[in-house]
Amino acid sequence: MMPHMGNPPPHIPRFYENLLASRLASERQMAFVSGPRQVGKTTIGRTLAQAYYSWDNATFKKAVLSGSDAVARLTGANLLSASRRIFLFDEIHRFTRWKTFLKGFFDEFGETVGLIVSGSARMDVFKRGGDSLMGRYFPYRVHPFGVGELVRPVIRTCETMPPVALPDAEWEALIRFGGFPEPFLRRDASFATRWRRLRDEQLFREDIRDLTRVMDLDQMHHLALLLAERSGEPLVAATLARDVQVSEPTVKKWVATLNVMYYGFCVRPWHRNVENSLRKTPKWYLRDWSGIGDEGQRNETLVACHLLKAVEAWTDLGLGVYELYYLRDKQKREVDFLVAKNGKPWFVAECKTSDTALSPALSLMQAATGARHAFQIVAELPYVDADCFRTMRPVVVPARTFLSQLP
């Protein structure tokens, strides 16, 4: 468990609580809720579930190992109920045959019991267990707080909403302490520093050790620290392999593991319709911008995390298939981000800390890709009460305005 200091922080309603409540009421599928350690998955699940069961609990573990009937007796799933009950199964993906167990339990009790299954790894990519869960679950990916969720924690029926001003104190806290609930709500520098350190220790000493076959955790941790220092930079496996003194295939495997465990994420280059564009080298971002010392890197990572949250939320909501890319050609003209909807560019975005002179690459890449919008997102500009998405030409927008319109 992470340490607590003083009274617990206040609870702030999450977008995900409203989304899961709506979906569990209208759909029979299990809700697979995944996301980084300490992002609030268990808290979200427990606000909705009538009963909570963790793989770390010996009684629940014993019942799972005994099969669906034993779990039904433990949970009361086999008892007549006047309404559909919601159960939360936490970290059950640590069980080798978790998919087979869930398939059997869902097939027998799914009509009368709603299941939230939560975990701190991308449960959809783990191949342990024999039977497929296809059609039996929907994934929901939880992210830290962002501007849009803080100003409007509601279910979205459309991609963007009118902007809302986030108070100055909240914006400054979000930049300084990040969006993970405890450090953001406590706003204590000493606590935040200790929280980040212990969270990283638990990630490497528990999660990665338990869920992967990585043996050299110290070298992998060294790679993670190097990546954290280079958030927003191209991920060059050869350079990292030399720095960590392992092979390139090992670096690629470890980076994939770090991404699966929600330590960071890759943004790949968009190359369609862009002459001489880069095709292979991804950029890598840390999922917690608060520990980044360089101001420009921190601001770009903050925007990257918000955009990833948005594209995954829009996809999970069923509004389409959204993906996040960046743009760079062999002449080194670059735009930080491109968001595609159903395989077609929707908008391009460049991040700046204070520069309000439009980047020449922005209009060039908008024209090349056919994107509808082009934004230069400036972190230090004050909030403006105007809808960014009504403008088709390249435009300079305050980060606080743009981010408030996203989920």
Class from helix and strand fractions: alpha/beta
Number of strands: 13
Beta fraction of the residues?
A: 15-25%
The gross shape turns out to be globular
Mind describing the biggest β-sheet? Answer: 8 strands, mixed
Mean pLDDT: 91
Helix content, binned percent: 40-55%
How far the N terminus sits from the C terminus, by CA atoms, comes to 29 Å
The Rg value, from CA coordinates, equals 22 Å
Read across the widest sheet, the strand sequence of neighbours is: 6-8-7-9-10-11-12-13
Order of helices and strands: HEHEHHEHEEHHHHHEHHEEHEEEHEEH
Number of separate domains: 2
Low confidence ranges: 1-5, 126-130
Helical stretch tally: 15
Which tags fit this structure?
alpha/beta; eight-stranded mixed beta sheet; 15 helices; globular; disordered N terminus; five-stranded parallel beta sheet; single chain; 407 residues; Rossmann fold; 41% helix; 2 domains
